[in-house]
Amino acid sequence: MATIKIKNGSGAPAASDLVQGEPALDLTNKRLYTEDSGGNVIEIGTNPGVDVTFADNRKAVFGTGSDLQLFHDGSNSYVQDAGDGALILNTTNGGGVYVYSAGETMATFNSNGAVNLYYDNAAKLATASTGIDVTGTVTADGLTVNSGSTNTVATFQSTDRTVVIPLIDSDGSTQIRSIDGEFAIRTGGDGGSSANTVERMRIDSSGNVGIGTSLPAFGAISTGIEVEGTTAGIRLQGATTGALELYHNNGLSTIDSRTATGGSKLAFNTENTERMRIDSSGNVLVGKTSSNYTIAGAELRDHGTVGGTTTTQTPFFANRTTDDGALFEFYRGTGTVGSIQTFGGNLQISPATTFGVDAPTDIFLDSAGVTTFKTNGTENARIDASGNLLVGTTETDIGFTASGDGCMLAPEGTLQLARDSANELLYLNKLGGNDGDIIRLSTDGNEIGVLGVRANYIKIGNGDTQLLFNSGSDAITPEGLTANRDAAIDLGRTVSRFKDLYLSGGVRGTSTIDITIPETSGGAINLEFGNNTNTTRRTVQAYKDNFEPATADTGVISLGQAGNQWKNLYLSGGVVFGATSGNVSSKTLDDYEEGTFTGAVADASSGGNESSSTLNGTYVKVGAVVYVQFNVSNISTTGMTAGNDVFITGLPFASKSVSGTAKYTGTANLSVVTFEQTPFMQVNEGQTYVKILEVRSGAGNDAVVVSQLSSGASDIHGNLVYETA
After folding, report:
1. 275, 287 in Cβ contact below 8 A?
2. Range with the poorest average pLDDT among 153-157, 215-219, 467-471, 553-557
3. Is 620 a domain residue?
4. What is the value of pTM for the model shown?
């Protein structure tokens, strides 16, 4: 049970006088106190006319759930709704609600009137029957205006015909203006001021858009966009550095596509497909994206070249609908040099602007398929409807009709020339003094012959078979292009023969001559030399395998004579001496030769040790007999075996092998050698080496050994005759 304490005296009781939760009544001051859980004394009640005091953070609480709370936290005062429902400030006597601070009005809420918000004791925002009224400038991070069920979202109205909406940032001012029914945008205000703004764009009463001008005008165009200024223009900027600029500057109208680094292009698209571009080099490309004559499309290059490439269509066309005249005109500098024209439904090419029948020089292509070429008022050439090229004539087959001078070249390759004079029909001239071909002849692409020049002479032929007509030597000679064709070209052949050969100087050959004459029924070819009398005529008979004097002249015909000798006689079978019949091999000389050989001094016939000294030898072979001479000086015996016999190896021919033992000897001259008797050489049958021997007193023949030689000083000179196979 709680205890109520009565306090004597005035003022609040001390905390020591109270117990938590127990009330204390001050009868003098009519006040009620208690102690909270923290040991603080708080005043909990008062009588009318006396202030009720609560300590900081002590709340006056109303409602079952502590819904309404009034308190001071030591810094600020609060009216706090902590329960359900709304916090309502309500006056029932028709008065208003007012908010004041330090003597200044902050807000007023009037019954059946406006709600006013103040700044520095001045009203800035007031509600009205039509909405809100704002005094001064509205500054907002964002603004959303909802028209609700009406079309009008916002209305800006002025007392005169100009409405100005300034948009101010930290650096300047931008204005949106309505002036006499026209719309304008101004920029350039200084420091947030609108005083120095300049008009940048206007939409006039006709709908024209002017950028940089307040008076957009477009001549015959009723509406449009006009940009004015020294460098004024339109830039269309992408997300990257590329941009498209349209501007007029110093009398030059410009469309410019560029990047920060340059090298951009200007492209034109229809139906989402590129149709034309101007590349970074200034080339205009139609139907293509790169400058290349091999790609289909048209292009105009910046240096003046025009080109068109197509696979199925006509690259370029020009059309005069009714009258005759120029289709193309050509200039050099400022003067006309020629034109391509229509005349009477035909095509004409002529110099300058002269055309029609009066053109002195032209190319005329008529509708009948004839092309004529005229110079100095006279037709000099034409291509007829059949494709024949006619020069100096209008006729074909001039090579046969011979009606006048001219030339005809038919499309099938025929060339006809006609000239009614003694001059040549065809001139061919190779300039520069160079050798080479003038005319090449071929069949199905395969070359079969040439006509050319070499050293100012004419040559004719095929491959390595050619003739040179040499006026310098009054001769027709074989001419080889890739190889030496001397004595390799026939004049005629077995089935393609000349009939008669008429010569005034005879037949000559630089090495050999082969004259083939068909044999007679007897198998012989008779060559007769001398005059027509039988006493001085001599006959030589040529057979298949034999060449001999005629029977009547046997033994009287010489092959050369003392004062008129042959130089060389080349024979494959040998020379037969004194044989008249039967076996003549024993009387045949079938070999003769001279040569040198290099032998060696050795201590064995083969496989032994050789001296390092060089042996030089010569030989002469007549038939089967070999004559050998050799010399070796300063013989070194280093590496040779002292007791071994001395041999000379390396004979040019092996000795003949016969039944029994054949020995051939020769002389030997040895110097600085120890021996008893005269030395000699010996070669046995079938050998290619010589053994050095000496005659010893009472001992017969014995070999010379290596120890008998004086190393570095001994010489051997030898001569030997032996027979070889």
Report:
1. yes
2. 215-219
3. yes
4. 0.36
